[in-house]
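> forwarded from #structure-qc
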């Protein structure tokens, strides 16, 4: 696992209406991770995503937050992953799940 590039995508919706809501939990995770790793998400030219390169221990990361609504974020994230050579099995999507209790976490493949 060390040395392999991972893309961590934090899903949510843009705009003040959705800030700090449960629906933006994934985006908040990525923003907090960027802060803790000392990097800043920046707009990616020609794509509707904000991204930063980071490293956790020996693992290189691409932290990504789409600039689109949650139901439209797949294509921009997929384009960015292809552009950066990240395979689908190295993508982690962080998002809310209304079926889980607040604060619960589920990991699945």
């Amino acid at each position: 696992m060390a040395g392999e590039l991972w893309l961590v995508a934090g899903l949510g919706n843009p705009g003040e209406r959705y800030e700090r809501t449960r629906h933006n939990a994934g985006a908040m995770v990525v923003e907090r991770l960027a802060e803790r790793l000392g990097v800043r998400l920046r707009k990616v030219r020609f794509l509707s995503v904000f991204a930063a390169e980071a490293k956790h221990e020996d693992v290189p990361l691409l932290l990504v937050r789409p600039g689109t609504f949650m139901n439209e974020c797949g294509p921009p994230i997929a384009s960015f992953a292809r552009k950066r050579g990240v395979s689908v099995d190295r993508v982690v999507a962080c998002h809310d799940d209304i079926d889980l209790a607040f604060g619960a976490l589920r990991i699945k493949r």
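QC bot note: The chain has two helices and five strands. The first strand starts at residue 6 and ends at 10.
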